[in-house]
Amino acid sequence: MTLLKLSRRAALALTAAAGLAAPAMADVDFSGKTIEWVIPFSETGGSAKWANFFAPLLSEELPGNPTVVVKFMPGAGSTKGANWFQEQTEGDGTLLFGSSGSTQFPFLLDDPRVMYEYADWNAVMATGTGGVAYLNAEDGALFDGSANQLKDIPFIFGSQGATGLDLVPLLAWEMLGMNVEPVFGIKGRGDGRLMFERGEATIDYQTSSGYISGSMDLVDAGTAVPMMSWGALDENGMIVRDPTFPDLPSFKEVCEATEGCETSGPAWDAWKAFFIAGYPSQKIAFLPAGTPQDVIDTYNAAFEAVRARPDFKEIASQQVGEYPMFVGAGAQKATDEATTVSDEAKQFVLTWLKDAYGVELN
Amino acid sequence: MEIFANALPALGDAWALILQPIVLGYLILGVTMGLAVGVFPGLGGIAGLSLLLPFMFGMEPVYGLALMVGMVAVVPTSDTFASVLMGIPGSSASQATVLDGFPMAKKGEAARALSAAFASSLFGGLVGALFLTAFILVARPIVLAFGLPEMLMITVLGLSMVAVLAGRVPLKGLAAAGLGMMVGTIGIADAGGSLRMASYDIPYLTDGLQLVIVGLGIFAIPEIVSLLRQDRSISENSNLGAGWLSGVKDWFDNIWLSVRCSLIGVLVGIIPGLGGSVVDWIAYGHTVQTTKDKSGFGKGNVRGVIGPESSNNAKEGGGLVPTLLFGIPGSGSMAIFIGAIALLGSGDIEVGPKMLKDNLDITYSIVWLLALANVFGTLMCIALSGGIARLTTIRFTYLAPFLFMLISFAAFQSGQSFEDLLALFAIGLVGIFLRRFDWSRPAFLIGFVLSNPVEKFSNQAFQIASFKFRRGFETGMDYLFSPIVIVLIVVTLISVVFGIRQAKAIMAEGDVQSGSKRAPVTFLLIITAYLVVALLNANAIPDFNMTDKIVPLVIGGISLACCLIVLVQMMRSPEGDVVFADKEVAGEDADAPYGLWSTLAWFAGLIAATWVVGFIIALVGFLITFLRVRAQAGWFKTLILTACGLGFICLMAGALNRDFPPGLLQGAVDMPWPLK
Questions:
Q1: Does residue A75 surpass a pLDDT of 80?
Q2: Residue A354 lies in a domain
Q3: How far is residue A210's CA from residue B199's CA, in Å, rounded to a whole number?
Q4: pLDDT for residue B667
């Protein structure tokens, strides 16, 4: 299979390595080793795509160019793989784990299946995404930057479940006073979009890459009207417009314009906490507990070099979107943000889940 | 329309892309790899594609597509080997093939069955590609016309095939299907997250049972155990009889059946969300209903092979429509395919609505690469089939230990935990008794496969319908009873009526003798007890999660009613009545030199040893002991065969980057692969 290796990329890798990967190389060498990158989902999900995109890049940047293989360990909504990873203590850098928002939310909500502890792990890289909500053409005509005229309309939304990433849009719509009825049990946001295209669902949202590749056409064709993005975090932790969608108002703007929606108080704090946990640092790569610092440094440098590739922005735009990629200390900070919510926010969401959908997690 | 004007030049461009020697080279490479993966039951295209993924990054798009398409295309062809020769459904695409293909192998017609299957696959693939070339341009509105009520009705149509396969006592078939559906509901409900017959204390059960395990347990284990007990070869006569030419001739004689089933395959394949699970059953049902003499089905009627095999390759082509046009994968392998396309070249090919506008040439390349891959793959399979069919003349005792090895490994791939093996054994036991007492195993499997779609589509359609009814009665009725739904209802009704009339002629388990009451009644009582427990369990789900309890309650209730009626029948009927069918009374199982439990104990031993020392070490012990003790082989032969088996499984697992089940030993001591 060597014929598949591209000299162009090898050359790029060399330039990148010469310029950037010099410090912190210590004695860690992965020559001839195989690194397993365990993904707690099936081969078909977004996390698989994410890891498969980074695996060859990582392999080029790690000292000794080890083979990086992606392994899948799906089960119990990703808690099976995460629980397994919690027990691994191979500190030699040959094991990497990829967590996602669907792993973070059960952790935050005290799901009884969770036996893992993010604080034990070592984050080396994190990437985020955003999300966009949109309406059908008929009801979208009533959208004027606020949800004031949408409050009496019953909406249908194809949802993967109230305790996953869909928690963020469902809570947002609820805060806007909209009457959105989720139809649970779909698999993947693509199915939700299809339900919207068939006219069965009348409101939908997609993460950024799904919106760009699938839903933007609907907007251009006039069958969908974009409502808002979830926004993005600036350096001060404030929510601003999503730079990928600068023309769309953020949820915060829509909320401010809508009667009865508050951008402070327990509901807002809870929404913001779970938004941060689910979107700006959605997917995180971890080394196991007890990994020596020099191995961690080596990985940080390697991911740093991946990020510094001159063509990274171009090749990454489809895979991870135009969102910041965090490395090293940045990834650790992103992880802290993604895995801590205040007790008030947690209690608010647990109560809301129980009252609105009858979901009890204990 | 502008798009048609662009179609012909794009088609020309596509052929120019495909017909480069290097592209064909990659295609053949992909086909060869796909064949190697596909003969391995339970792995299928997903494992193979994941293997290719690391190489896709930045690859010339058409090369990468050729490699991947070659791999995906041949899996439904090559898994026919396992279905026909061993009775092991290699993937969900070949379940129905087992019904008549394996009996043909037992009759010594393996080569004929295989070549008929391959000819049908090839033809189905080509018909599919031809149809898609025109259809893909106008497919979008048609795909969108299939909403939830339409998908529900197609699922129900698939379920109605139970009527054809119910066996001699229709109520038993119905109960078997209901039991399959109830087993399919085990785990966390998709809609509301309630637990059904599961507990967080046993995390394995919360995910439910996987199709691979149920397919292997229901079809493969009972056949392996039965053949092993009889201590003979699969084929009753060592003369393989009719060769591969007569299989091709069989296909040609039934060419119109093949055309119809191919079209069924493409059409069902294009509907996202249904995937391959119903296609082969609908094709099989159609085959049975359009055949005049039905008595041969289940006993090795070649039409029962031609129908499903024509549909399952065509389905792969159909599955491209939702994948390429909507970016929504029709199957697991298609999901990886989408991900891989984004890695190709500079990453500017993006599946979705833009495929038709910007990349029509690439779209057509994919369609016709698929067709070409079918041609190459089929030719290779036909070339191999004569030799591989000889496996059926080997004394089965020499095959069985390797089959146990293969199915254990295949089962382990589905969840990668030791419980996979336990589940396989448990389901295998259910399969053995379903077979023994002539409860329709196909009906059980159809129920299991369609359990999740039935529940999902009916719940979601109900929710949306109630929403539409709130807007107005007419809106609701228009939604529920679209013209497509009405046509499907009519087709389903016809299929059920005809099916019930014909069911008595189709004996999937052969002619089973009846005996005393005790054993069949005991089995019925065990099933009834399970249904009662499952019903109580579903009933305990709180009412606000009605979506999670309604389907188990209804299906469980119907199945329980069937069981109770059968129980009454049993109380009233004299011994020897057809309702007391029992394979241990007379026939090949009853006359077998080895008992059921002593044979099954070998498999149990392998699993128990795996629990302690891990799979590979357990396998060494198992193969040596089995070959020495049960097969009475000499030391030389034993060691050679053991080494071959181990070498093969390690090679496959190593190439596909898979692990083996670990045991207690591996938990205590760090070991290198493959021992770990």
A1: no
A2: no
A3: 35
A4: 79
Find the CATH number of the domain harbouring A19. Answer: 3.40.190.150
In angstroms, the separation between the Cα of residue A122 and the nearest Cα of chain B is 23
Mean pLDDT, consecutive 10-residue stretches, chain B (676 aa), reads 72 86 92 81 71 76 89 82 82 79 87 90 90 84 87 88 82 93 90 81 83 87 89 73 78 93 88 72 87 80 91 84 78 77 73 77 89 90 80 86 90 84 95 91 89 90 88 88 92 84 67 82 95 94 84 95 94 86 82 88 95 93 94 92 92 79 84 76
Backbone angles phi, psi at A123, to 5 degrees: -75, 135
Chain B residue nearest residue A156, CA to CA: B464
Determine contact, residues B159/B177, Cβ cutoff 8 Å. yes
The segment with the largest mean pLDDT, out of A20-34, A88-102, A273-287, B292-306, is A273-287
Q: Are A274 and A326 part of one and the same domain?
A: no
Structural domain boundaries enclosing A144: 131-278
Q: Is the peptide bond before A23 cis (omega within 30 degrees of 0)?
A: no
Distance from CA of B356 to the nearest CA of A (A): 13
Touching check for A319 and chain B: CB below 8 Å?
A: yes
Q: Which of B190, B206, B464 to mutate to test the interface with A (most CBs of A within 10 A)?
A: B464
Residues A209 and A167 in one domain: yes
* All structural domains of chain B with their residue ranges: 2-233+245-393+440-498, 512-580, 596-668
The whole-angstrom distance between A282's CA and the closest CA on chain B is 18
CB contact under 8 A, B467 and A156: yes
Token pair, residue A202, equals 């009348």
Q: Tally Cβ neighbours within 10 Å of residue B51.
A: 17
Strands A122-127 and A325-327: antiparallel
Residues from chain B contacting residue A75 (CB–CB below 8 Å): 203-204, 207, 415, 417
CATH (domain of A215):
3.40.190.10
Question: Using CA atoms in the order B485, B491, B494, B495, what is the torsion angle rounded to 10 degrees?
Answer: -120
Same domain, A226 and A263: yes
Residue of A200, A219, A315 to mutate, testing the B interface (most B Cβ within 10 Å of its Cβ): A200
Which of A79, A109, A194 to mutate to probe the B interface, most B CBs <10 Å?
A194
Interface membership of A33 toward B (CB under 8 Å): no
* pLDDT above 90: residue A106: no
